[in-house]
Amino acid sequence: MRKGVIRPGHIQLRVMDMEEALKHYRDLIGLIEVNRDEQGRVYLKGWTEIDKYSVILVQSDTPGLDFIGFKVTNDKVLSTLENDLKTHGCEVTEIPAGDLDACGRRISFVAPSGHTFELYAEKEQTGKWGIAEINPDPWPLNLSGMKAERFDHCLLMGPNVPATQALFSDVLGFDLSEQVVTPDNTVAAAFMSCSMKAHDIAFVECPEPGKLHHVSFLLETWQDLLKAADLLTMTETKKDVGPTRHGLTSGQTVYFFDPSGNRNEVFCGGDYHYPDHPPVTWKAEDLGKAIFYHELVIHPTYLEVLT
């Protein structure tokens, strides 16, 4: 049952060289830089996104994920979910408004997988970049690189996937849209949606907690995806896999790495999910087909390289 979580709102990524990271996320992927703050954080957005930003880059000695924020419908819902998280046994930290640029108060908690999440209700809305609010054009001029439309989802790896799935289902109201199950019927991967998308967040079982597998950005068409793959070669960007198709979610995809080693995905297409849809199930013994539908095998780097 949906409980007022709208969508993934932002992600904070650690990068080891900010200027190289900006060449990657801004100039290659095509996100728009919107601000920098006194702490050195850089804020970016996809051109279709209404909120002021969705990606936050922070310089660090190590790559990886700091947190992912989900936006909720209003402050009353935020307070209700805060109480529900505490009742569920989560330790909740309150973060005051203004800690992030143009963002209201946030509540932070750690999932059983070891990942840090936060919820918030308010963020300044600046509208689609370069698009008028009245009589809008279909897309703006002067987009860069891959022309990413939005920050779409993340796949995270860590332990306790069933407990993490329960937290997101029972407390936050996400649906289980797709799953990978082992022969003993244990859920090894949970793809979860708070919208009509195939997934807004995904968890895959891994002994090491708090790991980022990839952060994903939406492109419009298969042709855009092929051009993105061309750009990876043209810019000598380290590619992982693709272009190809997933079995899970049916989306088309290319995986590659930022200069710090964080895996990125650009994708298009894919399935949709309504709350009354039963979860799609894949068998763990057929994982190659589930992940890479054309190749039928898992590339060695795909499950081994994490940040």
TrEMBL record:
Domain VOC: residue ranges: 7-122, 150-269
Coiled-coil region: none
EC number assigned by the record: 1.13.11.2
> What InterPro entries has UniProt attached to this entry?
Catechol_2-3_dOase, Glyas_Bleomycin-R_OHBP_Dase, Glyas_Fos-R_dOase_dom, GlyoxalaseI/FosfomycinResist, VOC_core, Xdiol_ring_cleave_dOase_1/2, XylE-like_N
**Which family is this protein grouped under?**
Belongs to the extradiol ring-cleavage dioxygenase family.
Q: How does it assemble?
A: Homotetramer.
What this protein is called in its record is Metapyrocatechase
Q: Report which gene this protein is encoded by.
A: xylE
